[in-house]
Amino acid sequence: MAAVVLVGAQWGDEGKGKITDYLAEKADVVVRYQGGSNAGHTVMVGREEFKLHLVPSGILYPGKLCIIGNGVVLDPAVLVEELDGLASRGVDTSGLKISNRAHLILPYHKGLDAVQEEHRGEAMIGTTKRGIGPAYVDKAARTGIRVGDLLDWEEFRAKVTHNLTATNELLAKIYDRPGYDLQAVLEEYAGYARRLRPLIADSVRLVNRALQEGRKVLFEGAQGTLLDLDQGTYPFVTSSYPVAGGACIGAGVGPTRIDKVIGVVKAYTTRVGSGPFPTEITGPAGDALRQQGMEFGTTTGRPRRCGWLDTVILRHAAEVNGLTGIALTKLDVLTGLEPLRICIGYLYRGTVGEDFPASLKALEECEPVYEELPGWHEDITGARSLEDLPANCRRYIQRLEELTGVPVHLIAVGPRRDQTIVLESPF
């Protein structure tokens, strides 16, 4: 038996799509356990690029069981569009199953997301306005509508009618916005019910049965540790649990089932949206790194903020996830930069510390303490072993391991599947 959780160890956008794709080839089952269509994974297959938002990356390998778990909030409009897009490119999606316990995103969730973000003004969080937060709010408030409700139309109708009445009143009285037409919503979702009915299943049973049978299961997280609702830079976080523990909740498995946790680490640091970012590089240098790394959101196209590698946040990620290994991505992007800088601590009110603060105000006051390392100028995109890398490149990797206490298992030196150095396979 092998159960591996793959998590982002920074603010998301670490290149999890490539690593998930690599591990999915070895897995029998791939499970997406949280988040919604606000997340995106980019996978390169040969010269073809696939941008996935809800469907697990394993779908690109025939014969894999791919599960959208109960911890996901599902926008059926996005899923149907994604499935049609994959089918048009010859991808077999028959292996996909959707948890009957996953919660649905409805049109009013997206409307609320947009208007609430607008009303935050300068305090806006930077949401993708895809209804993720409001859907999780309904879930926590126990007024959510689940995928399984699509199988009982009378139940679905009753729940939508109740929720829409309350939401329309909220939109009118608080935000002075028009509401949603009940019949239009019902007609739209009746079509989704017909389309998705064959894919709906008891995902908890499917995953646990696979583990009992000794099959290899990959739990695929979205976003990253610093966007976790509890462990991230709150309130500039997502509305779910991207950390490894979220896999147990979002897929319905016990923690004793998990064998390994791999943290995906970009060779530098990026984040999207608002919030403190101690190692951010601004001005022309930051713009150059953004262009060299093609740092634009998979889902939104928004430019990502770029900065130096921050091992303070990586040590935090190692602790809260229980990382057993690191998958290092985009190492090739650093080629030609001289010198390289790694943040080893934060200076806060005259004292240097190595811990990641919970207080947003304290984090905003922190100044990064850097260690400089010599860079390299050799092209590393053709490297297929550690020995193929320049000495300065190997030293950068070694220093990352020393500062985090976690060994590097995989190294990505380019976006393609074959541009991967394997030091230890998680499976």
From TrEMBL:
Cofactor binding: number and manner: Binds 1 Mg(2+) ion per subunit.
CDD domains (UniProt xref): AdSS
Pathway annotation from the record: Purine metabolism; AMP biosynthesis via de novo pathway; AMP from IMP: step 1/2
Cytoplasm is among the record's keywords: yes
Catalytic reactions of this protein: IMP + L-aspartate + GTP = N(6)-(1,2-dicarboxyethyl)-AMP + GDP + phosphate + 2 H(+)
Chief place of localization: cytoplasm
Positions bound to Mg(2+): D13, G40
UniProt keyword annotations, A-Z: Cytoplasm, GTP-binding, Ligase, Magnesium, Metal-binding, Nucleotide-binding, Purine biosynthesis
Binding site for substrate: T298, T299, T300, G301, R302, P303, R304
Binding site for GTP: 12-18, 40-42, 304, 330-332, 412-414
GO molecular function, one term: magnesium ion binding
Presence of keyword Phosphoprotein: no
Classification via SUPFAM superfamilies: P-loop containing nucleoside triphosphate hydrolases
Reported cofactor(s): Mg(2+)
Top-level taxon of origin: Bacteria
SMART domains according to UniProt: Adenylsucc_synt
EC numbers: 6.3.4.4
InterPro entries: Adenylosuccin_syn_GTP-bd, Adenylosuccin_syn_Lys_AS, Adenylosuccinate_synth_dom1, Adenylosuccinate_synth_dom2, Adenylosuccinate_synth_dom3, Adenylosuccinate_synthetase, P-loop_NTPase
GO CC list: cytoplasm
Family under the similarity heading: Belongs to the adenylosuccinate synthetase family.
Descriptive protein name: Adenylosuccinate synthetase
Source organism (scientific name): Neomoorella thermoacetica
